[in-house]
Description:
Elements: H1 8-14, H2 17-59, H3 64-71, H4 77-91, H5 97-120, E1 138-146, E2 149-157, E3 167-173
Antiparallel strand pairs: 1-2, 2-3
Amino acid sequence: MNPHELSPWSMFLSADVLVKAVMIGLAFASLMTWTIFLAKSAHLFLARRGLRKALARVANTRTLTEAQLAAGRGSSLPASLVAAAIHEVRISSESTANGIQARAASRFAEIVRAEARSARYDLIGGMPSTDPSDNLHELELNWHRSEGVDYALVRIRLFANLGAPTYLVVAGSRL
């Protein structure tokens, strides 16, 4: 047997059309996966760096007003947290420091949860799920009819108890 016949390219060229189609599909899926991974990694890196810079600016302030100026008035996470702290101080002027701190911490947790929930589905591309479920995973099979053909539509939510996104997959048609 000739060693050139065992090269990946020659094996691809001598493969059946169906095998070639599967290999091309897998190569395309791999390319798309790596593209999404690199783009999302860059996005997370930039977001993390921006958050660190904003937190450093806020940490160097002495009052909430200075912190608000340092965080900015945008819709960023640090700006939302500082605005929540200012709001709690304003509405709780007669409360103790511990009471204000507890309410502010509760509000901070709500803001961070909402931020995490809104950003989570953007990591890959599923539909955002509203809340965590009691189930570890969720799997649901439905049939959808389109142009006279019944398609299996599978709803998948892995790690539903952590609030993971939901994915819809067209699994095939009825024979």
